[in-house]
């Protein structure tokens, strides 16, 4: 031992630390035996050390079903499906083509009526009549305003639209029947549909 009192104190503290560490090691070695036993459920207690829930509730919680965790939501993947268009129903094609043709015919009638109104307001028919008369043609026999009157133009467009409806309906129905024949030989049109 040294004679210096400070050295003496340091040696005493060092031996205490070594003994304390040994005690901690002994305690730590005993704890795994206690941890290996089954844990009792933890019960929340108030400031007065009284349980906040009854023992029956604590037993029910300890023996109940495990806590359900929510699964992690992943970003949805785009699905893809391969499909084949192997047959067209001729009757449904005829109905759809008829309705679309009727809609197209009505649009044509309205568009021609609006166009005739604009041309009449601008005075195109009068100017064309003047051009014919200036060329030396008999202006009395040719009057474009009478020839291209609104009723005449709309009647002609209506007749044209009715013929167009019949032709388009027949044409698309025949195309659907031909597609069915070709599809039975080839296997139809193959498509890949994706869900974006």
Keywords:
transmembrane; two-stranded antiparallel sheet; 6% strand; mainly alpha; elongated; 196 residues
How would you explain this protein's 3D organization?
With about 200 residues, the chain is mostly helical. It has a domain of about 100 residues. About 65% of the residues lie in helices and about 5% in strands. The protein is built from 6 helices and 2 strands. A two-stranded antiparallel ribbon has the order 1-2. Helix 3 packs antiparallel against helix 6. The protein is elongated and about 120 Å long. The relative contact order is 0.11. About 5% of the residues have low confidence.
Kindly summarize this structure in a few lines.
The chain crosses the membrane at residues 96-119, 153-182. With 196 residues, the chain is mainly alpha-helical. Helix content is 64%, strand content 6%.
Question: Would you spell out the secondary-structure blueprint of this structure?
Answer:
Blueprint: H1 5-35, H2 55-63, E1 80-85, H3 90-122, H4 124-134, H5 144-147, H6 150-186, E2 189-194
Antiparallel strand pairs: 1-2
Helix pairs in contact: 3-6
Biased composition (Acidic residues): 1-10
InterPro entries: DUF3566_TM (IPR021949)
Keywords: Membrane, Transmembrane, Transmembrane helix
